[in-house]
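During the no-cost extension, the postdoctoral fellow (Dr. R.K.) reprocessed legacy sequence entries with the updated structure-token encoder. One reprocessed record is reproduced below for audit purposes.
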Amino acid sequence: MLDLNQATEDAVNTAFAELISEIGPADVADLVKRFGFSGEGRKGEIPPHCSLSLGTLDVSVLEMARAYAGLS
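Re-encoded structure tokens follow.
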């Protein structure tokens, strides 16, 4: 069993897709919106897919900066 620290270190992205599956993709999409992402090109819609952990959402530099600021 791989823990999230090891998955991050080894860049095992499927572990994070599985995590989204367990948490619930809709809940993760809502969290992404609360971090300030708008789903550019999707009219503000962020699809509730496990692939969110793989970087499939188009984001701006400003959105990324805002999200990192939320972690500090």
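Residues 53 and 63 are 16 Å apart (CA to CA). The chain has a mean pLDDT of 87. The remaining legacy entries will be reprocessed before the final report is submitted.
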